[in-house]
Amino acid sequence: MIGLLRTRRSIRKYTEQPVEADKIEILKEAVLRSPSSKGINPWQFIFIDEKDTIQKLKVAKNSGTSPLETAPLAVVFCADETVNDAWVEDCSIAAIILQLTAHSLELGSCWIHFHYRMYNETVTSEQYVRELLGIPENYRVLCAVTIGYSTREITGRPFESLQFEKIKLNRF
């Protein structure tokens, strides 16, 4: 696990190579194995490989969506907030599990945040994504994760750049 953490970085540009079906199946298994508060599993995962739909996701907010421009695969994370009040945490855990699994498969990934973001002055990004993908009203949309093959070789952050001053022992 530490090897994955040492080498994983957010990937914002992807090649045109599609993600293979067997790798997509592994990614699906990974999100379904994600821990969930009280084992309730309030989440749903929408795997999107239609280029047109991915491009429509790109306009869900006015910045921070550039990885959707070239991603061959995007996964939207949503959950029924009436089932579990820890839906944000549950979806967040599943998203990082997906990203680490993608990295283990030599795929790149990047988080695109929609929760508390705006599509325009009156419509939230969540509302836009819900309508685009036919997600029921009682579901909240947290994010999308883009997945694909990176256009360039990426190395992890150097050990020396880690912010060890952020770690406290016993008290702040």
| Oligomer category | single chain
Question: What topology, given as strand order, has the largest sheet?
Answer: 1-2-4-3
> Helix tally?
5
Report mean pLDDT, rounded to a whole number: 96
Could you name the ranges where pLDDT drops below 50 across 5 or more consecutive residues? none
> Quick one: how many beta strands?
4
> In percent terms, what proportion of residues is strand?
15-25%
| SSE string | HHEHEHEHE
Specify the overall morphology: globular
- Which structural class should the secondary elements be placed in? alpha+beta
Properties at a glance:
globular; 172 residues; single chain; four-stranded antiparallel sheet; alpha+beta
Secondary structure layout plus pairing:
Layout: H1 2-7, H2 21-32, E1 43-48, H3 51-58, E2 73-80, H4 87-104, E3 108-113, H5 125-133, E4 139-148
Antiparallel strand pairs: 1-2, 2-4, 3-4
Helix pairs in contact: 2-4
Provide a descriptive summary of the structure in words.
The longest helix has 18 residues, at 87-104. Helices cover 31% and strands 17% of the residues. The two termini are 28 Å apart. It has helices at 2-7, 21-32, 51-58, 87-104, 125-133, and strands at residues 43-48, 73-80, 108-113, 139-148. Strands 1-2-4-3 form a 4-stranded antiparallel beta sheet, with helices on both faces. With 172 residues, the protein is of the alpha+beta class. The mean pLDDT is 96. The protein has 5 helices and 4 strands, in the order H-H-E-H-E-H-E-H-E.
Quick synopsis:
It is built from five helices and four strands; from the N terminus they run ααβαβαβαβ. By secondary structure, it is of the alpha+beta class.
